[in-house]
Design goal:
The protein is an alpha+beta fold. It is 36% helix and 13% strand. It has 9 helices and 9 strands. The radius of gyration is 20 Å and the shape is globular.
Length: 352
């Protein structure tokens, strides 16, 4: 018998893990006849990630969430293809092993990739780092070093020149996310329409395009277990593309919480003492990348708005009964606060 995912009992009967084990053996990825063991990593709001092992062999399996999904969302095949091309030039991206869309194996498509060994930092400092002097600052520096390294890659060398449409990228993003919000709106919040109009009317010219991760944040990274200055993995590439690197920077800053900020529905340890401020993170990126960041307040405004819409889509699914995750019920509070943070960024109050 396979060990079922341990984090969410409601999901335990939705995957036939014996079918998965048989498929892995048929693809010669697994040679042992020992039972497949499965543990679900701590569940976020989006795709599901499992640690799978057979004897000494181990890997990670990624699949979309259960329940109805929006069209084109949770595209694991796209993530698999990106990793296959990117791993050779950016080894922080995990090496993918195989992709499967046979519904006889699993009702949703999935892929399997290498398992990296280290620590992921979420809402607290890992025990391994507690006695390391200046660990929060070392982590802060490593985050910006990783982002600038990613943005310095030649995407053509990685074979990703056809993996996005950089011309007009920012404009499409702004108009697209405003449309998404309109399609899933449930509550009225003061100032949203004015904010959206400002975003449309003030779109800046973008710098030269780069690979854009599109979900770059601290808890999508893995650090060496004995070294808070060394990043060994960067995960969740589903939304990556070729586009404006400052959207990545702004998203990282939006997720980089500071002390005293309201509940947003997001988890972050960065509000604790010792971590760099958003302003300091911005200065680190500007120094390391050499890019002009003078329009960052616009990008940060859009970043907070976009995260609010991401959560609004989840809340909408819960509101209409498509999603059963009880965590979604309180997201409306975070959505309102994220929109307020967007307004603060618009007024240039967050990066002083």
């Amino acid at each position: 018998m396979s060990k079922q995912p341990s984090q969410n009992k409601a999901l335990q009967n939705d995957v036939n893990w014996e079918n998965v084990a048989d498929y892995l053996r048929s693809q010669n990825l697994v040679v042992s006849n020992e039972p497949l063991e499965v543990d679900q990593f701590s569940a976020g709001y989006s795709n599901l990630t499992y640690f799978i092992r057979v004897g000494e062999w181990q890997a990670v399996l990624r699949r979309p969430p259960f329940g109805p999904l929006p069209p084109k969302a949770h595209d694991m095949k796209r993530e698999y293809v990106v990793l296959k091309k990117l791993n050779s030039v950016f080894p922080l991206a995990p090496k993918p092993y195989l992709f499967c869309e046979d519904t006889k194996v699993m009702e949703r498509h999935f892929y399997v990739m290498e398992k990296k060994d280290g620590v992921v930092i979420d809402d607290s400092i890992p025990k391994q780092f507690e006695d390391i002097s200046q660990a929060p600052q070392l982590i802060s520096n490593a985050v910006m070093e990783t982002l600038t390294a990613l943005h310095s890659l030649d995407y053509k060398d990685a074979g990703l020149e056809n993996f996005g449409y950089p011309d007009g990228y920012l404009s499409r993003q702004v108009h697209g996310w405003i449309k998404r919000y309109s399609n899933c709106k449930t509550d009225e919040f003061t100032g949203v329409e004015a904010l959206e109009k400002w975003l449309v009317d003030h779109i800046p010219a973008s710098p030269a395009p780069t690979i854009v991760h599109n979900d770059f944040k601290l808890n999508n990274m893995m650090f060496a277990a004995d070294n808070p200055s060394k990043v060994i993995g960067l995960f969740d590439w589903e939304l990556s593309t070729i586009g404006d690197p400052l959207t990545d920077l702004a998203a990282a800053l939006a997720y980089w919480a500071e002390e005293g900020e309201p509940y947003t529905g997001l988890t972050s340890v960065t509000a604790k003492p010792g971590f760099a401020s958003r302003r300091e993170m911005l200065e680190l990126y500007a120094k390391k990348s050499g890019r002009d960041v003078s329009n960052i307040d616009y990008y940060l405004t859009f970043a907070f708005y976009k995260v609010a819409v991401v959560l609004q889509q989840l809340y909408y699914r819960w509101k209409i009964g498509e999603a059963k995750d009880v965590r979604f019920q309180s997201l409306i509070i975070g959505i309102e606060n994220l929109l307020k943070m967007a307004a603060k960024a618009q007024r240039k109050e967050l990066l002083k």
